[in-house]
Amino acid sequence: MQFQLSEEQLMIQQAARDFAQQELKPGVIERDEHQKFPVEQVRKLGELGFLGMMVSEEFGGSGLDAVSYVLVMEELSKIDASASVVVSVNNSLVCYGLEAFGSAEQKEKYLKPLASGEIIGAFCLSEPEAGSDATSQHTTAEDKGDYYLLNGTKNWITNGSTASVYLVIAQTDPSLKHRGINAFIVEKGMEGFTIGPKENKMGIRGSDTHSLMFNDVKVPKENRIGENGFGFKFAMKTLEGGRIGIAAQALGIAAGAYELALAYAQERKSFGKPISDHQAIAFKLADMATKIEAARMLVYKAAWLKDQGQSYTLAGSMAKLYASKVAMEVTVEAVQVHGGYGFVKEYHVERLMRDAKITQIYEGTSEIQQMVISREILD
Ligand code: CAA
Ligand code: FAD
């Protein structure tokens, strides 16, 4: 058993750390306050190869492993989870989905610009009445021969207005239930495709979340991903890896808040000594550090299993369930360590606390992770 990162992984981790400090930290409070998407920062992330990290070089990606990917997610999320969710969706949902299951033509046309960061993508499964219960898709894709006619509404779509390419899950044959679901590549600008207003959110406010409306959108047959009826399995297989990315985001949010609390506790004095000298604060820091380390082990292990070509369904769900819980617990304590200063924006921890909550909701709520884990261990 090895607990050491390779030279290359350490370099990538450092590059992401530097990027987060130099490019994400300036303006992060304003972007959160004004719900401003990090346009320029995402462009630079693309130039660095962080938007197609695991895509093979043949398709314009960086050809890196999943461990490197979670290291980058962790470092970016310490500073700006609104930017890191763009990285997560583009890498582990959109690029992975296309590379693993797309046709040669789809990879050439869509994966290449997505992996190089020229454009970004979105993954569209959730609907107003189908979130956790993802098999009950109401969006329909009627087979019309050369094309499918897409009708319905998708909800909460990350990169909703900034994406150029959307992977959309829809029901083709309701009589077959989940086996009649398909996944399609939809381009922005296709006739009948409209984007709803931006959601005003509690956290990850810089991220761009929208509902999407499809009204008789003609999607060419060659834009269906995989065999007829493969759409639900496509979504599940893709989300397995996505959950590792969100687990790494949760880990980074927790680690970012902990680092701020650790520094603050050694500077701030009360009763004639640094507050870290009070056992109540020192023990909080000890608990935070321990939980973060445990979460890190789960996240890295899930990524490592993926790299080894082994099953990571169980490990990915465990990592997401635990790391997101730790993100909530640690960020709440980080605010507490900061006292009143923690309650104002300038000290960053209140934002990290608000951002932490989403990691227990998207890409499968904590209850859904418990469902996946319990099924795996009872099977
Ligand atoms: N891999 C492959 N196939 C899978 C699978 C997996 N991991 N999990 C399930 N399936 C298959 C099953 O084998 C079954 O197919 P067959 O009948 O052909 O064997 C089919 O899918 C249905 O499976 P279940 O009976 O287990 O389905 P279920 O209705 O009980 O639901 C669920 C399973 C795990 C709860 C699923 O609905 C789920 O994951 N829900 C959560 C949805 C979710 O995570 N949404 C995230 C949206 S994206 C997002 O959020 C992005 C973002 O924020 C940034
Ligand atoms: P519901 O499914 O209605 O769940 C409500 C509550 O009931 C939850 O606590 C849930 O855990 C619980 N629950 C439901 N069923 C069960 C059960 N069987 N057992 C126990 N508890 C249960 N989706 C996308 O497709 N693409 C995206 O890019 C995307 N980005 C998102 C970004 C943001 C900011 C947000 C808020 C959401 C995003 N989502 C996205 C949607 C997200 O994946 C869903 O919100 C999530 O899957 C939960 O679905 P829901 O909101 O419908 O909640």
Automatic annotation (TrEMBL):
Domain (Acyl-CoA dehydrogenase/oxidase N-terminal) ranges: 6-118
Record carries keyword Oxidoreductase: yes
Acyl-CoA oxidase/dehydrogenase middle domain mapped to chain residues: 122-217
Domain Acyl-CoA dehydrogenase/oxidase C-terminal: 231-377
InterPro entries xrefs: Acyl-CoA_DH_CS, Acyl-CoA_Oxase/DH_mid-dom, Acyl-CoA_Oxase/DH_mid-dom_sf, AcylCo_DH-like_C, AcylCo_DH/oxidase_C, AcylCoA_DH/ox_N, AcylCoA_DH/ox_N_sf, AcylCoA_DH/oxidase_NM_dom_sf
Any one Gene Ontology molecular-function term assigned to this protein's record: acyl-CoA dehydrogenase activity
Pfam families: Acyl-CoA_dh_1, Acyl-CoA_dh_M, Acyl-CoA_dh_N
Keyword annotations of the record: FAD, Flavoprotein, Oxidoreductase
Cofactor(s) this protein requires: FAD
Protein's UniProt keywords contain Oxidoreductase: yes
EC number(s) from the headed UniProt entry: 1.3.8.10
Family: Belongs to the acyl-CoA dehydrogenase family.
PANTHER family: ACYL-COA DEHYDROGENASE, ISOVALERYL-COA DEHYDROGENASE, MITOCHONDRIAL-RELATED
Protein name, as recorded: Cyclohex-1-ene-1-carbonyl-CoA dehydrogenase
Source species: Pedobacter antarcticus 4BY
